[in-house]
Amino acid sequence: MHKTSEELKKYFKAENHDKSIIDEEINYIAIGDYFASGFNSKIGFNTNGMLENGVISGVDYPSFFASELRNNNFRLNSFYNLSIPSTNIDFILALVKNDKKELHKMENRIDLLQSIDWHAKNLYKNYFTNLFKEWNIGKNDFEIYRRYIKNANLITITLGFEDLFFKLPFEKIFKLSKLEKIAKSKIINEVCNEIQSIATNIIKKYQKLIWEIKSANSKAKIVITNYIKPLLYLDHFFDSFIWRDEAIKFNLYDYAFEWLNYIAKIVAHNCKVNFIDIYDELYWKRHKNNLCENIFSLFCTERGYKKVAFDLFAKLALKKDEFIAEDLKNEDFTNKYIDYQPYWTNDINSYRQLFKSELSNQKLLKEIYGENKNFKILIYSPIENKLSNHLASYLNISDYLDLYIRFSDSDIGLIFKNTLLNTFNEINDKYKSIELIKNFLNDNLLGKKMLLPLFKQNKIDKILFILQIELTKNNDFSDIDYLYLKNKLVKIIRNNQNDIYSIFKLFFSSGIINEKKSEIKDIVISFVKDIMNTNFLEHFINFKNDYKFKIIKEYLSSLKSFEDLIDFVVENIINYSSGYSKLSNFDELWNIFIVKNKYKLLAFLHRIFNEISNEENIEKTTNFLMETIKISRRLQSFKPNNERIIKTTIFDALSLLKANPIFLKNCFQILLKDVKNISLYNLFLKEKKSKSKLKLRHFITLNNNFIISIKIIKAFNLIKKLIKKN
User: Which of 152, 243, 249, 525 lies at 20 to 30 Å from 106 by C-alpha?
Assistant: First the structure.
């Protein structure tokens, strides 16, 4: 039986230490992952800092924490943030032990760190190169990590996120939204058990790491922290996805987060080190627009890291007995600095005071936070002023994600596959294209190759930022649920054709198309057939699949010549993808495709016409056109005599056109000339359909054959007349 949320919220009492206060010069290091390395979604990379030539350089929480030590007259002798921007506990343990055998096994992680460290856009470029020199395992270049640990007397640690996140049973989680209540409860219980099993293994590894650090340095004061809640804006999104139209009966996202916190608490307790809760939940929810400026950023931006550092220092420097007995009873003080008292008291026995300030608690908090709890968090520090040109509001995550996908050993390709497939998991059996994609992506490497083009040239950042702006309209960030976000995304897709194409065409210039041309062709053709034969568009983009559109799809799908035309279109676009990658939008592609393939398209149109007008199909075609007229005019039926005349007129017109191929060819030429200027993108995606500019009269040219033209126009006018009479 898995632990309950209430059990996971338990705090543990810290063991007594002979001496807790640090009264000598402070040699501080930080160990952690993405969060502790200060990844900033506006800068796009980690922002690890250190103390060099009297200056602290980072905008990560350890750097702000180190700055507070100096600002409050504690003797900071050295500081280095050793947090790795993408790491797990195994890799940190290998670094701490300088285990060359294990480091060789994890060379992909070293490659990832190196690629991040050398990236041209990284403001903190070469931070780790200056630490690891030549990155040579055999030459002992990584031994420096253990040496820093040996020399430290203060160590903060924040780990466990990646170990937990990438092991979550995503396939089961994504399927939850389609299950009935009893089945859903059963699977949720299974997921919770799996999370507990994963967490139990993480705890064992984490404890092993702490004991290894202690064996290297038994005197250092160690402080373990938890995390702020990841993707804070999307708190409600995940559970609204699972429960859809139902009331949320169990918050699975919160449960996973509680386990992440519990891991830190129990490891600190078992290893007899300090634990500090740095997630002031009520404050973060109220001020997330300042602390986490980007909706789609995993964690916070620089102000959020500053808040973490201020809280961490405050808790370690407070005189705890006075704080509880006196300060929390002072209403003026609490109104200024305390949002939620339990945040300050729940963990108060989980750590020991490490810093002794000459100031009273109330004066200390004023020194840390300023005139109120927001003041210094919101104003720029010297390092923020220095980086101000890079801290403007924007989303900048694609370069980092590109590197992560390339070099990480995580199953990101398989996660992508399962995410994609489970978007359609209630009707996968209807979609041949989805099955083909599933088979195509069974290889994790292929999944990565399909994802990588998305992150080129920062195009995805722009789309997500546009979506972020759209989400902020008429929204206080409290109700971004699954349906709300999905509808906003569809709106962005509909209204930003050029930006969507700029992402789409990145696949044209990627090697994956040439490498897997046959498989991709089969997928695209199946995709088109699914659009023609199923409710694919309705499900994915809320396309109003009305009856008229349905019967047109069904009729065209029944034609072998139309299927051949689709094959030709797909093969042409794939074969000449490099040329199409230079265009600006889908409409431009459509126009140029028709111009370049005019004569082949004319041949296909003749084949289609011959098929619909042959002896076997002409009656079926006549009935189809008759039904289309009824639906277009919203008519239930015609008077029997009028219907007979209309059918006869359609039949005769088709026969006349078939008997005059030159006249028909000229009509098709006019059709192509007009059709190339139609926006297919808007036709399928726009909510309000623009009236078609195609008129039957456009295809009839009197100069071509006067007699045939007169007969076709006469037939057309007769049909119009009978429609009006009905």
Answer: 152
